[in-house]
Design brief:
- This protein is of the alpha/beta class.
- It has 19 helices and 24 strands.
- A 6-stranded mixed beta sheet has the order 6-9-10-3-11-12, with helices on both faces. The chain has a 6-stranded mixed beta sheet with strand order 18-21-22-15-23-24, with helices on both faces. Strands 2-1-4-5 form a 4-stranded antiparallel beta sheet, with helices on one face.
- This is ABC transporter ATP-binding protein.
Length: 533
Amino acid sequence: MSGSRLPGSPSDREAARMHLELAGLTRSFGSLVANDHIDLVIEPGEIHCLLGENGAGKSTLMNMLYGLLQPDSGEILIDGEKVSISSPSDAIARGIGMVHQHFMLVPVFTVAENIMLGRETTRGAGVLDRKKAHALVRELSDRYGFDVDPEALVENIPVGVQQRVEIIKALTHDAKVLILDEPTAVLTPAEIDELIEVMRQLKDSGTSIVFITHKLKEVKAIADKITVIRRGKVVGTAEPSATEEELAELMVGRAVDLKVDKAPAEPGEVQLEVRGLTVIDERGHTAVDNVDLEVRAGEILAVAGVQGNGQSELAEALLGLIPIAAGTISLDGRDLSGRSTRQRLEAGIGYVPEDRAHDGFVGSFSVAENLVLDLFRKPPFGSGVSLHTGEIEKNATSRVDEFDIRTQSIDLPVSSLSGGNQQKVVLAREMSRPLKLLVASQPTRGVDVGSIEFLHTRIVHERDQGTAVLIVSTELDEIAALADRVAVMYRGKVVGVVPADTPRDELGLMMAGASQREAEIAATEHPTTLGTI
């Protein structure tokens, strides 16, 4: 690891603090202006939150700072001096580190080997100097309380610990500014709390942190300063004392009601019954492990859990998109075993997939065409090989109005719409026929705050029409807003089904594998930071 050294003592790092300024940074992709003359100042030793909706331009801006993209115009200044950052190597050399939303670690390598990667040094007859890497990891782990084992294989450690490994990698390069891009997307609430503590320790040691997020609670918990970006422009700054409603209004440009107006559920008969459901994934791992679930007419059951714990496979199995190894799925008392996906849709299931662009619509088809994707074979939209274009257009005009789909024309391709409006198209199509069950997987992922408000309202409306609703979400705010009951999944199993008013801390502990009783006790003794907001 020649050329690398450990950060010095706190006083050394104090002397090495960096003042970073972005002046008029602009970047376009074709006709899309992703960043429009952005000015931003990162003071030494501060946690600066960059807040904005998905697609607002936050990541593009940070990718320019880290050398992954080049600006069309504007300047980057370090300690008042203009610099050129043409690659991540340039950024690292200048003291800028970045932890990406999707970690850049090699799963089959140890922690120490990942730290060495790209900076390998040898001793003796060409033998890798692992001892030096171990010392680096151990020293930083002890200093910041990371509790990271240098010998551990990355594939065997939790995602929260993997994130600390990424931070250690940056610190071994003497990062004075650390960019964290949506760092909490795959963490449990307890792991988020631990990350917040790590960020505070790094700040105290002199490191500046740029924290990119769209989650308002996290911003309020950790920020020293907040800059809000909307549609590629800086639209304002705010203090952490600002309310969530004030921050949301800055993000969206209008007042937003963050609370769902929802009357108590009036559950009816069981509509969906799942017994002993087991799914084996493509790697031969058990993704869904002997799951039992019930969803009644007129209620919303939310499936909570950190991404990758079997929730996606559960939703896909319900639709027949992937095969099941064991168990049964019944809708309104009828076994769906052997039924195709089309037959399940025709039986009364509506489906909002996790990845709308891949599974929810055809981007090159028009808005009108996408609104009848699973209906065009039957009257009034079609018969035989003929399509009734007049009825398709009439339907589209009605749905666009009902679901507030913002489009200049129903003939435009869906790919031209914003993420929120694309999701409205999917939801409008699925709700355009009588449903017995609505399965919505990550229903507001990549959707702006204003559209979230509308989508949540429509989902609750569907429940109130007597439909059974199953929501899969990794967002606890969304779970709290929509759920009548919550099923928590961990490593393919349902560890408990709890009431919707279960405290956030308890849900977070269950998401990490604790039983309901264990979670109740632990949450009382050790509340998390976010649980108190």
